[in-house]
Amino acid sequence: MSETDTVTDRPASAPKARARARLLQGGILLLLFALLPAVLVWFDRGYFYQLAMLALIFVLLAGSLHLVTGVAGLLHLGHAAFYGVGAYIAGLLAADHGIGFTIGLPLAGLGAAAIAFLVALPTMRLVSIYFAVATLAIGQMLFLVMQNWVAVTKGPNGVILFGGIDLFGLEIGSRLGIYYVVAVVVAVSIWVIHRLTDSYYGNALRSLREDDQCAGAMGLDTVRLKMEAFTIASFFAGIAGALWAYTTGYISPVDFDFFESILILAMVVVGGLGSLPGAILGALLLILLPEVLRDVGDVRNMLVGLVMFLSILFLPKGLFGEVPALALMRRHFDAAWPGAGERRVGWRG
Amino acid sequence: MTSVTGITRRTALGLALGTGLVIGGAAGAWAQEDPVVIGYQLPLTGNTAQYGQDFKTAAEIALEDFNASGRLPVPVEIIFEDSRSDAKEGVNIARKFVDNDDIVAVLGDFTSTVSMAAAQVYKQAGMPQLSQTASHPDYARISPYQFRNITTQAQEGEVNANWLWERGFRKVAVIAEQTDWGQAVVQGFTAPFEEMGGEIVYSEFFNRGLPDFRSIITKIQRAEPDAIYTGLFYEDGAQFLKQMEQLGADIPVHSTSAAYNQKLVELAGPAADDLYLTATFLPTSEGEHVQEFVAAWKAARDGQEPGQFPAQAYDAVNIMLDAVVRAWPDVTRESMREALAATEDFPGVTGVTSFDEDGEPEKQMTRARIVDGVFVEVQ
């Protein structure tokens, strides 16, 4: 997996690298929008559609947390609360005001981002463990609001959403249609997160993680950068929440409790801190593995734990660590530093 | 479902499987008809695994008796799937069950949240779903396919309101856990009690698993009620009763069938004495069904007594099996829904059960009291 050790004799020319990147991007799009749907249609089983959509939603959640915890290095223990805020905004708009997917989806993201911005104002000057505890408290606070503000959120009764997904007045009823909606939203979001991660902006965030005082001395506005990362991540968590609400039809506070935050965090850590492909792999692993192991019986959760434990033990940098992820982005996606495709990542080159 | 391609593919698969079976099972008893299959989604692991494991034991007892009874020419099978009380997994299982054409009806889930989320799938697919415990006020109204075997708080609250009124209590403090069920407990009791002319002097919700009830108890004492009506499960109930005793609060306490569990007495000790509660199931009851079930449960569980929830699960499974018998030989999802809806005066261990037009059970409630650590019926 480590691409850093291979040396190519001949540096590829820039157009060649770009063509290869196009090919790879096309391949991913083909997989997501043609191959996977073809497989789903072939099997024609609601269970597989459900798994595909759930996996995509958690890919987005892990991808968004990756920006805060992986790239900017802020341990965030309350991400599921913003996932919940998005779900509740979408759910309540649909249930109480008849506002559907087209407007509800962006509002869910913006609402989650707005709340994240407000709670970030006082917390962003906290560092390390103090920040982590603050996010824990924020997550718990938002959870308790969902649970106890019965007049607005309907409290533990949860929210039932009637009707499915409408796109500009067009009702999307078929399973395949809903899959495509989810896949497009997640793909666009992940692409944005990728552009934020593998760019000078991403490197600025990385510098916060490595040494924020040094980053500050270099003229970076560290507080502002942290706020931006936190708010953007919450925006995408809100989008994921809305997708969950629309595809499930029923939400309740326990879907967004502390354990959900930990699950998302585990995806990011197991996948590889600072690596977007890692976060995606981590989400796929932790969503699909418990389902694959269903036939094993009651010990399946223990097996999932064991896999996590072993992966942390033997791959402490994650299933797809940051260095190989950066190398992949540079070499094969022509991203982050165009033209620098063949230069090796890390300190050895 | 795209029927044309679906059928051809299924036929192809069936042919392939069939060929294998013929080769492999030539000597086997393969003339026998396929079993009727029912799905059961329940938490077998996770925070609420103790309940799910109880349901599984209860279902196995019921199923074994049924298959031995010969009421159907074919056996009934139950497929258990673990939902971990997680809505994500609950929905996955629901899709999986719906995909399985052999499954004609589903039991479960345990919590309202998971039952409600899964119900959205069953509603669309037209799969009858019978939950032994889902208590959300809107659950049974989701669609004609949802049924439950737990009394609603609208029924239980009224019985309790009458009972407290009869005992001469006019000022009552109400506390309940902050869940959909707890909300329903308070509403179900408050409305009829106030209608009779009673007064709710204090009402409070607490989050499940609260270790310290002292501030709530102090506030209750300050409100000077004649009695306390509580919507809590046995774990919280034990904490509450112990701390009531520690604070010397000498106010009569009433509760619902959810607090009915032998573990309440084990955890609270003498503090549990004189708790009044409604129940639908008493293992000390002399009914034949009850004693059979209690004996089978004790055999399966090292002499433990079954609580309210396993009894509800046991009845839910039996109601389902009874519906299979009535739907036989044409057992489909639709005929199962009709058979379930037609359930009337089913004699179970939790009393006689009928479903109303919403799929809500109508049950008889028993009044009980703890005397020297034993639940006894109050006449």
Automatic annotation (TrEMBL), chain B:
Keywords: Amino-acid transport, Signal, Transport. It holds the Pfam family Peripla_BP_6. It comes from the Bacteria. GO terms for biological process: amino acid transport. InterPro entries: BCAA_transport (IPR051010), Leu-bd (IPR028081), Leu_Ile_Val-bd (IPR000709), Peripla_BP_I (IPR028082), TAT_signal (IPR006311). Residues 35-372 form the Leucine-binding protein domain. Residues 1-31 form the signal peptide. Coiled coil: none annotated. Belongs to the leucine-binding protein family. PANTHER family: LEUCINE-SPECIFIC-BINDING PROTEIN, PERIPLASMIC BINDING PROTEIN OF ABC TRANSPORTER FOR NATURAL AMINO ACIDS. This is ABC transporter substrate-binding protein.
